[in-house]
From TrEMBL:
This is cyclic-guanylate-specific phosphodiesterase. GO terms for molecular function: cyclic-guanylate-specific phosphodiesterase activity. Residues 24-278 form the EAL domain. It comes from the Bacteria. The chain holds residues 408 to 699 of 712 of the full protein. The lineage of its organism: Bacteria, Pseudomonadati, Pseudomonadota, Gammaproteobacteria, Steroidobacterales. The keyword Amino-acid biosynthesis does not apply. Keywords: c-di-GMP, Membrane, Transmembrane, Transmembrane helix. GO terms for cellular component: membrane. The keyword Membrane applies. It comes from Povalibacter uvarum.
Length: 292
């Protein structure tokens, strides 16, 4: 494998790759611009308590309303933001906005909800993360119990000793911590036990075919049992049907998130949704919300 063949290889791929590379470069510079021009929005998806059917929290999900490309999925631009390091300022913006949004909802009389914010691995490794979280909370005059941070298995298992320290600091502040997309990465069970976690979120890929795939049933049962034996709550992602929800209820799953309740919606639509649900379900007090 010589330099020449590498160069030849490069030439060979150049044509078909260039549109992809150009696109990626364009995406990067456009993303930098989007952060300043207000093209980025945060939508909120409810997380529902299965036993009570009440919305206790929501997840902040970033959206990019691009002037010519239309809605760009975070699956497209989050990886680019991660590669370029843009994810750090971007993630901080999401965290601050989400805190201010919860403050605004409280001030306008909505029943209180906790907000979950996704943290990328790079953000999680920033030494000043706890200070940024602290400052986002202070800026919005929120108690730490209003915030939940979602981390993937790879983010926390990359350097478990360092993660343990960061998680201990965040958890001591009173911030909740979830492992996102659980089951798709590699977790060391001994670290799972040692980390101060609150929740495991079962990845959507195990929920999708739950009603027809016995292997998925086994995996979901195993995750629920593992979570409960470690005194963690368990959340199912991507619940789309009444059957899936009923089945998860029977398995003892604590919460769910998914289109069956609602996709992620704008802040105003989220407030309207909560208002509508409140009419049907007992109201949640702030103390209730902070308890679990
Ligand atoms: P995630 O954190 O696992 O978020 C859940 C994803 O599943 C969201 O996709 C949500 O819209 C989608 N979803 C929820 N319920 C259903 C359902 O019933 N059916 C289906 N088919 N999908 C459902 P979304 O918003 O496209 O986000 C994709 C990923 O992008 C997120 O996965 C997360 O990893 C990342 N992401 C989004 N916002 C942020 C952010 O602010 N910061 C970081 N670091 N990552 C983010
Ligand atoms: Mg998430
Ligand atoms: Mg997830
Ligand atoms: Mg996921």
């Amino acid at each position: 494998y010589t330099k020449d063949s590498a160069r030849g290889g490069y030439r060979f791929y150049a044509a078909e790759m260039s549109s992809f590379i150009d696109d990626r470069l364009a995406l990067e510079s456009e993303l930098r611009r989007a952060i300043e021009t207000g093209e980025l929005e945060i939508h909120y998806q409810p997380k529902v308590d299965i036993p009570t059917n009440r919305v206790r929290s929501c997840e902040a999900l970033i959206r990019w309303r691009h002037p010519t490309r239309g809605m760009v999925s975070p699956m497209t631009f989050i990886p680019v933001a991660e590669e370029t390091g843009l994810i750090v300022p971007l993630g901080e913006w999401v965290l601050r906005q989400a805190c201010l949004q919860v403050r605004h909802w409280i001030d306008t009389g909505m029943s209180p909800v906790r907000v979950a914010v996704n943290l990328s691995a790079k953000q999680f490794r920033q030494a000043n993360l706890p200070a940024i979280v602290q400052s986002a909370l202070a800026e919005a005059h929120l108690e730490p119990g209003f915030i939940e941070l979602e981390l993937t298995e790879s983010a926390v298992m990359h350097d478990p000793e360092a993660s343990a320290q960061t998680l201990a600091t965040l958890s001591a502040m009173g911030v909740h911590i979830s492992i996102d997309d659980f089951g798709t990465g590699y977790s060391s069970l001994s670290y799972l036990r040692r980390f101060p976690l609150d929740k495991l979120k079962i990845d959507r890929s195990f929920i999708r075919d739950l009603m027809k795939n016995p292997d998925d049933v086994s995996i979901v049962k195993a995750i629920i049992s593992l979570a409960h034996s470690l005194r963690l709550r368990v959340v199912a992602e991507g619940v789309e049907t009444a059957d899936q929800l009923e089945f998860l209820r029977q398995l003892g799953c604590d919460q769910y998130q998914g289109y069956y309740c609602s996709p992620a919606v704008t802040p105003d639509d989220f407030a309207a949704l909560i208002q509508r649900l409140r009419a049907e379900r007992p109201e949640l007090t702030e103390a209730d919300m902070l308890r679990t």
